[in-house]
Amino acid sequence: MKLTLPADNMHADMVESMRWALTTGRLQEGKIVNAWQPEKIFEAKTIGGERALGLEAEIGSLAVGKRADLVLFDFRRPCLCALINVLGTLVHTAQGRDVDMVIVEGEVVVPGGEPLRVDKMAVSEAAVTAAAALWRRARAEQAGQL
Question: Could you tell me which of 61, 65, 88, 124 has the fewest CB atoms within 10 Å of its CB?
Answer without folding.
Answer: 65
